[in-house]
Amino acid sequence: MPGRATVPDRLLDVPAGTAATPRRPDRPARRPLTAGGIVRRAVLIVLGVFWLIPVYLLLANAAKTDDQYGFIDVWQPVGLGGLWSNIAAAWQKGNLADGVVSTAIYSLVSPAIAVLVGSGVGFAIVALRLRHGFAWFVVIFSATVIPVQMILMPLFRGYVKFGLYDSRIGMIVVYTVLTIPFAAFVMRNFFTGIAREVFEAATVDGAGSLRTFARIYLPMSVSALLAVFILQATLIWNDLLIGLTLTRSNDVRPVMTALVAMQSTYGGSTMQVVLAGGLLVSLPTVVLFLLTQRTFTRGMALGQF
Amino acid sequence: MATALITPSSPRTPVARRSTNRYAWQAAGFATPALLLVALVLYLPFVWTGYLSFTKYSGVGPMTWVGIQNYQDMFANPDLINAMVNTLYWVVGTIALPVGLGLVIALLAHGLPGSFWYRLPFLLPYAISGVAVGIIWTFILQSGGALTEAVTALHLPGQDLRWLLDSPLNTWVMIVATTWQGAGVNALLFGIGLASIPPGPVEAARIDGASGWALFRHIYWPMLRPLTTVVVGLAIVGSLKTFDVVWAMTKGGPGKQSETLALRMWKATFQENQWGLGAAIAVFLTVVTVVAAGLYLRRQLSESKAVY
Fold this sequence. Notes:
heterodimer, A: mainly alpha, 68% helix, globular, B: mainly alpha, 13 helices
């Protein structure tokens, strides 16, 4: 099949350093404006504006005070007057404060451990030529396909039994292990792009394998490590199901689970406070996305392949 | 293939093979943490759930072996049939909307200077959680909400529709909410695929006078096919697991009308204490997922093997 679109090649097999700059030599030269080009632009802009309407509605109504909500049309903006009090209400009464702290811990610690452990197995397979390496790789990679529903019940039972239920350690463990297969998949594929000579040169220079791993392979892979870390941190931040199953108390429960609880205990929180809560918990990941667009989208693409 | 771009690793001659023994212990040391954790926290529970699906168990007390009883119950239970139908809607809807729209957006943006910026509004919702997406769209779709108001103000049909209260309409609109979240990822993937198509055939077809639909039909579409398989496979796998958005928008209600299989499994287990039935649903979901994932997994693994 000539010229088929092979995405993984492009994404994975680029040695460190060049990966962050997706500008391609084969990008078509700037064409003069054509009628077709203008129409395509116009359609995209209209569709893009349409796409941002829900964001607008979120902002406009998370900012309405109790006096305004229900009396002023939902489509009409009111300035940001009520936004801070609504966010404060979600933060305190909605118990989002505890959730934000725990979830920040989970989404920083778990992917950090997972990329290290995943890189370790990738290094063992690629550089150290682990016996039956490809078979082990398939074993780990296959775990990315298992629906999380398949492990929830035993996890719940096991966690209750070993005192990990409703504990931060337990949450860190489960998020870490759920992240390892993907991290191992990406890092193993990334390491295959590092020339064998690198490893051999390090060995000749007397570096042990731990040193080669920590001082050469990991620094060469910073872009991939970062892409995996950022994507997985976002996924953990956004998790609902694990939190719903394995936690109960306010200071362990992750933020999305807390938010959904806020929404259902309707007596406590008004719609505009729930919306403000939704805005608040979305800010970290959206800001992260805006600050790291290239790395983030690279992680997204890697996440699909 | 891009393996040509990098220095090929030394061929696996017998000499190279023998030298691996030097690192055997270290390799085991590096690989063990990952393998052990994955075995303990993913594969062991996996097997346990498989066993559980052949038992009757309420979460506490004794576990009784019942053979395939749970599976028989599953296909006779109206709540489960309903959840299966809804899940089927999710699968079909997810292929049609987020994937289809993603392709359209990618095609529109392809080759435009600054195409990244045109795609940005569509990518943004991906950073937002399913729960937050659910909350935003609940607000839009609730009775007398933003959509009903807009439809009324513009004198469009649909003013009396109860978006989240009537089934299967509630499932359809939740698929739309998910489309809002997910179309951008697919646009991104298709965009990368389009960018990797070599300019030669496209230019040749242009010279032959092909443009628009003909160009898409005869050049882009065939060349995107391997990628489309992956994207569709991922969409199926993702939609089979639908949970967060539904939980945040309807909790599967009213009643059990908008439940998906993933939601039914959770409720059966953790709210109704029918662990055996919950496990059977989980196994069923897994089997369907693995079959669907076979669409793209084989490809991924063969490419991984190719670079090994």
